[in-house]
């Protein structure tokens, strides 16, 4: 298997590899073109592996670059590589596992993993035995190189490694927990950790030995090792808690110590343990004795680090600084869903609101896409533990709050405000007696000279918004609203963002209580449109949309429309169809259209036509993509938000949308969207179908024969939001069809009854059975039975069960069901 390069070819490659490390863009482009030329030569990959593994006279960075280019070739061209070349590369990799250079060993390990994952471990049967044998080598480089490759394989392919291989590998890994080298010990535990969460049988057979060895490593001073030990305990708690219970006091002591570790990565890994433990039934019993130690540690861990307090704490006025695109995190539209609402809202709203997201949104305290960090993890741990222990937390937490909230050092004060917000949900009942004093103090903190104190105060106040709106308005709500609106116009972008999010929460809690202040609110939000940079502008759209959802038709007054609509329409006209910023604006307009009702009529025609155009563009692009795979797949989010805005128009304009529908091909587009492979598209399609049924049924009616089979096919609770909207749409259609429903009954009735009576049916779906909208589905069903009683005989017992499930049925529905029974 010996191969030797030509001297001239080798020199050419070395020159290119050296140039490839240049930071100059022009040089990089030239190198890329040359490499593409080289790839046409069959021996090119031979040269690359030769430089990586054999050319030890060359510097490490050049050799490593050769290996990384080879890895890219394997990834992109594996199926086109000749078998003899693949075998040669494999052979040379195994020979080079123990290279004296750590960089080359790491590169070889990456290349081995790439070969194994692309070609399959079964096509390289000697790989794992060879690497396992190398673990016993007395040569450190060989042992470490083998472990480096094995760690990559275990992390990438844990689920496909067979029991026989693992029954040899795992005991061997455990033996190296006692190795003299910290790097080897770290590799050994990293190789085992991926098998915890998948409940590997080979690991279960060695679980007691694993736990025993973890305790041996718990005294290790190496931070990377401690991080891996903490991770192992967290995962064991999730899947093998019974094995940890006998050692729990020792584990708690260890985790408490590591939560205070000076290495933030270690402290974060340890803090994850408390989050995981809070979800376990044993949490209260095992943590109660150490709660007095744990809670102060978590509050302290919520402080900004010294580095962060310098770099973030000194940024005050930055509202004129343009945002970097990388600071704007991706937004994911929530498709329209019909769920339980108050009568005035009766219609569609965002589904799947995630409390965890709401909790995290308030802690967006940096510009790196809000990555998970020790501060956030500590606050989340306080939150979940407060929900476990409730008021039992307060004897420990209140003295801490008293000390921190009023502290002169802003970092400590800020951590106290954070802790106060974190315990809000779990300790609310116990905190009520303290809120008359704390809320005014927090409102005053909105004017703190430190931007980070102002921003976290916005979040904490939002956590107590429910209490605020149920108190005398002049005393709490009005001062809070006024100060939050000032912070919306703050000179610090982080404060603007926090204030917008907090105000949106206040809007949701206060609803129509905000009506007396609408003009002041609207003027502030509209002024912010001219002030905000890119990132916060997207959040501002959410705040405006939430306001419309909260106050509903009260927004439909000429003076409010004149304030709100011009800046939104200006933005609408500026944005192109393929601009991502159009999506949050469409979402915002959907809420506004629903709220304004007939007040949106002056704006409805161009908005409606653009939505139709967006849907058509997406459908056409997908058709092109199916015909020619060189075309890019369409971004269906724009179709989803367009469907949702059309729903908002239908709900808001009601019969006034009839002319727009009559002069468009919306029904044909809807027919296609209802059959889309993406559940979110179908979900929004059925919401629109229901809203159009209510608003202009004569235009929906001709399509019943096409629509009903599709509705029946989507009564699948595995796609809960799709099923929910399809159920609601069926109810609305049946209400309109009356006698005519009987010809479609066989397509939907049995599935509807199964869903309603299914023991594990989602709460959200059952809301459609015990709410304004579910009552529509029930009324529709009652009409079905009235016009075709024979069609339901076989399933009538299930219908009776469904009736019995109602707690407080509407009076008319109660009479209908009584009559049927």
UniProtKB/TrEMBL annotation:
Domain Importin N-terminal: residue ranges: 31-99
Record-level GO cellular component terms: cytoplasm; nuclear envelope; nuclear lumen
Single GO biological process annotation from the record: anatomical structure morphogenesis
Ranges where the record places region Disordered: 332-362
This protein's UniProt keywords: Cytoplasm, Nucleus, Protein transport, Repeat, Transport
Pfam families: Arm, HEAT_EZ, IBN_N, TPR_IMB1
Biased composition annotated in UniProt, kind: Acidic residues: 352-362
PROSITE patterns attached to this UniProt entry: IMPORTIN_B_NT
A GO molecular-function annotation: small GTPase binding
Matches recorded under SUPFAM superfamilies: ARM repeat (SSF48371)
Cell compartments where the protein resides: Cytoplasm; Nucleus envelope
Stated family: Belongs to the importin beta family. Importin beta-2 subfamily.
Protein known as: Transportin-1
């Amino acid at each position: 298997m010996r191969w030797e390069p030509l001297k001239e070819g080798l020199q050419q490659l070395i020159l290119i590899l050296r140039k490839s490390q240049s930071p100059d863009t022009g040089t990089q482009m030239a190198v890329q073109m040359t490499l593409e030329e080289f790839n046409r030569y069959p021996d090119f990959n031979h040269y690359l592996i030769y430089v990586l593994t054999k050319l030890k006279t060359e510097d490490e960075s050049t050799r490593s670059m050769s290996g990384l280019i080879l890895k890219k070739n394997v990834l992109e061209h594996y199926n086109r590589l000749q078998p003899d070349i693949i075998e040669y590369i494999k052979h040379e990799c195994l020979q080079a596992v123990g290279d004296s250079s750590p960089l080359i060993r790491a590169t070889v390990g990456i290349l081995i993993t790439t070969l194994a994952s692309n070609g399959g471990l079964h096509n390289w049967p000697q790989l794992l035995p060879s690497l396992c044998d190398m673990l016993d080598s007395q040569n450190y480089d060989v042992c470490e190189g083998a472990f480096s490759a094995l760690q990559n394989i275990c992390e990438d392919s844990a689920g496909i490694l067979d029991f026989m291989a693992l029954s040899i590998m795992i005991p061997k890994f455990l033996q190296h927990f006692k190795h003299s080298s910290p790097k080897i010990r770290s590799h050994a535990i990293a190789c085992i950790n991926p098998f915890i969460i998948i409940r590997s049988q080979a690991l279960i057979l060695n679980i007691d030995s694993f736990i025993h060895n973890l305790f041996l490593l718990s005294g290790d001073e190496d931070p990377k090792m401690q991080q891996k030990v903490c991770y192992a305990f967290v995962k064991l708690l999730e899947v093998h808690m019974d094995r940890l219970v006998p050692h729990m006091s020792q584990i708690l002591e260890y985790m408490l110590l590591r939560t205070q570790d000076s290495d933030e990565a270690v402290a974060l890994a340890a803090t994850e343990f408390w989050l995981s433990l809070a979800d376990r039934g044993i949490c209260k019993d095992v943590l109660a004795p150490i709660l007095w130690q744990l809670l102060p540690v978590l509050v302290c861990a919520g402080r900004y680090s010294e580095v962060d307090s310098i770099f973030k704490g000194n940024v005050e006025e930055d509202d004129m600084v343009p945002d970097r695109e990388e600071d704007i995190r991706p937004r994911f539209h929530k498709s329209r869903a019909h769920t339980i609402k108050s009568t005035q809202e009766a219609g569609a709203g965002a589904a799947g609101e995630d409390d965890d997201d709401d909790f995290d949104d308030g802690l967006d305290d940096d510009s790196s896409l809000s990555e998970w960090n020790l501060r956030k993890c500590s606050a989340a741990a306080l939150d979940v533990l407060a929900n476990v222990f409730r008021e039992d937390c307060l004897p420990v937490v209140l003295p801490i709050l008293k000390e921190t909230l009023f502290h002169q050092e802003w970092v400590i004060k800020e951590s106290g405000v954070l802790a106060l917000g974190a315990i809000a949900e779990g300790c609310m009942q116990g905190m009520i007696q303290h809120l008359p004093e704390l809320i005014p103090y927090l409102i005053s903190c909105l004017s703190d000279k430190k931007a980070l104190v102002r921003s976290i105060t916005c979040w904490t106040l939002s956590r107590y918004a429910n209490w605020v709106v149920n108190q005398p308005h002049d005393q709490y709500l009005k001062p809070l609203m006024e100060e939050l609106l000032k912070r919306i116009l703050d000179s610090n972008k982080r404060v603007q963002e926090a204030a917008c999010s907090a105000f949106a929460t206040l809007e949701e809690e206060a609803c129509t209580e905000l009506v007396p202040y609408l003009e002041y609110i609207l003027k502030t939000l509209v002024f912010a449109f001219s002030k905000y940079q890119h990132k916060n502008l997207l959040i501002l759209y959410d705040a405006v949309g939430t306001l419309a959802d909260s106050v509903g038709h009260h927004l439909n007054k000429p003076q409010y429309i004149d304030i709100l609509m011009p800046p939104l329409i200006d933005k609408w006209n500026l944005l192109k169809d393929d601009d991502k910023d159009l999506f949050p604006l469409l979402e915002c307009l959907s809420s506004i259209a629903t709220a304004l009702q007939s007040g949106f009529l002056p704006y409805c025609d161009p908005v409606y036509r653009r939505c139709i155009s967006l849907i058509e563009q997406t459908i056409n692009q997908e058709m092109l993509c199916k015909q020619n795979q060189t075309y890019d797949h369409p971004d269906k989010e724009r179709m989803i938000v367009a469907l949702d805005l059309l729903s908002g128009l239908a709900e808001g304009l009601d019969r006034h949308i009839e002319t727009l529908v009559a002069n468009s091909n919306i029904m044909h587009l809807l027919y296609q969207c209802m059959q889309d492979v993406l559940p979110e598209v179908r979900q929004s399609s059925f919401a629109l179908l229901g809203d159009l049924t209510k608003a202009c049924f004569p235009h929906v009616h001709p399509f019943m024969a096409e629509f009903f089979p599709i509705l029946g096919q989507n009564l699948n609770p595995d796609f809960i939001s799709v099923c929910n909207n399809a159920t609601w749409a069926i109810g609305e259609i049946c209400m309109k069809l009356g006698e005519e429903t009987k010809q479609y009954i066989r397509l939907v009735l049995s599935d509807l009854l199964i869903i309603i009576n299914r023991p594990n049916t989602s709460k959200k779906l059952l809301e459609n059975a015990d709410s304004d909208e579910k009552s529509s589905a029930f009324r529709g069903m009652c009409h079905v039975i009235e016009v075709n009683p024979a069609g339901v005989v076989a399933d009538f017992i299930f219908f009776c069960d469904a009736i019995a499930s109602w707690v407080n049925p509407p009076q008319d529905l109660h009479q209908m069901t009584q009559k049927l029974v």
